[in-house]
Amino acid sequence: MPQALKILLVDDSRVARLTLKHLIKECGQEVEIQEAANADEALDLVKEHTFDKALIDYNMPGRDGIELASEIQKIQPDLALVLVTANVQDAIQERAAQQGMKFLGKPVTQEQLNQLINS
């Protein structure tokens, strides 16, 4: 039996987390999803659990998703990080790429998530 893919969702919007969670579950893979509403919650989860992928919102209170990704990489350097945001400015995409993050613009489609989850 294949092991479930462990995914961390980080977004201050509960609705955005619910939407992503639903789309991820439709990808056809067994998944275990943990949710965090802010960077501090995400860091606590990363310290306690090992994840395969993390989908992180850019605009959050306290620090942005790219700053959070940098902190996460210090704890779990092999974790695949994805920035998920409606803010599709080139500068943000470049910062995400420099941090080694993939980039998904909101609204995220089922097809985009299928490719991400199944890769």
From TrEMBL:
PROSITE patterns: RESPONSE_REGULATORY. It comes from the Bacteria. Gene3D superfamilies: 3.40.50.2300. One of its GO terms (biological process) is phosphorelay signal transduction system. Keywords: Phosphoprotein, Two-component regulatory system. Pfam families: Response_reg. Residues 6-119 form the Response regulatory domain. The keyword Phosphoprotein applies. The modification 4-aspartylphosphate is found at D57. This is Response regulator receiver domain-containing protein. It comes from Marinospirillum celere.
